[in-house]
Amino acid sequence: MDYTPTPSQTVGPFFMIGFAGPLLISHIAAPGVPGERVKLVCTVFAGENQPVNDALIEIWQANAEGKYNHSGDPQEKPVDPSFLGFGRQGTDDLGVCVFHTIKPGRVPANDGSLQAPHLVVGVFTRGVLQRLPTRIYFAGDPANDSDPVLALVPAARRVTLLAQPVPGEPETWRFDVHLTGARETVFFDI
Amino acid sequence: MTSPAKPPVITPYRRLDPKTQPPLLYEPYRASVERAPRKPLILLPQTLSEITGPVYGHGDIQATDNDLTRQHAGEPQGQRILVTGRVLDDAGRPVPHTLIEIWQANAAGRYIHKADRNAAPLDPNFSGTGRTLTDAQGHYRFVTIQPGAYPWGNHPNAWRPRHIHFSLFGTAFATRLVTQMYFQGDPLIPFDPLLNAIPEEKARERLICKFDPNLTEPDWALAYRFDVILRGREATPFEGQ
Ligand SMILES: [Fe+3]
Fold it and tell me: Which end of chain B is more exposed for a tag (fewer CB within 10 A), N or C?
């Protein structure tokens, strides 16, 4: 028997009919989940700042202790069953989607050091035949300087992985995804 | 800050062979020229963040969510079909209790989506969306209708072959897959740039379901078999460096 993995295909323009309903999640963390509150405003662009109105963003993250709600996380830390850590939204006509969550704690890297706080992100869109994996880090976090994944990225492009605080809007962070163009976001081969 | 913990034991998911997957940029698919990233992807050795991922419980799915013909008062137009198969990893092991979501056009080739401008009728009895969980052996089953082909603006007289969109989570962020299932013998298949972006013919065939007379329910529905293979894990764990 041949068990080569099934090929990927584009999500196409009409995925929202499949994902509408209970599994379209904007509030990753309900009020009361421990941690620093984060309102994350994501915008997807193609070319030179053309908003993409049919992109899908999926987010996976640890809780404030840096523990994933998943059996594959061996850390002896508690999980909150009400916090799965998954979010999924489609972009609107301005290319924007919003997540309400908490800043994750630091998750161990493979050498036992600690990764900087980050969300793992999958971007899907018409025109792209595979999911585009990326990460969101938080600008100004001192842990970024020693993060082993950021260290894999050429210094000049690291800024594409940093959410920036929005001046005058408490708890609000902006993250722009550039599919193409001069500010193309770093995407990973995982 | 905090002192380093014991290195986690990471058994990464095996990497994909590029000949079996579509590239990001494939010129015949026009939208990829506008939207595909041009810079090479950065190789990321999987960490705890990639080998974990969202897992859904039964509470999120209703028992009838896998029957797209019973979501409205009346029966939808079109040929009733069963789509069944298994979700396995690349060692042939079942992926149990994993979420599958599907969406599709109706029998006339029209999606119930505001952006669909195809001049074909909507069907008040068909929404075209379903979801289910695989069972303990990785089996799944949908009841739906044969979707129609539809025109799209990619090139002159471009029509998508009949297809059903599939979305699977598997066991980790690393195993997430969105794909499309096509039908054996569809005359549009040789002309479709999405399917033909996949370099190997054998890999393209993995997206084509097979008619199965044994699964067909007499006097009620035709049946097609479609297995989905997700990435599996390396044989040996990776601990520290
Ligand atoms: Fe489609």
Answer: N
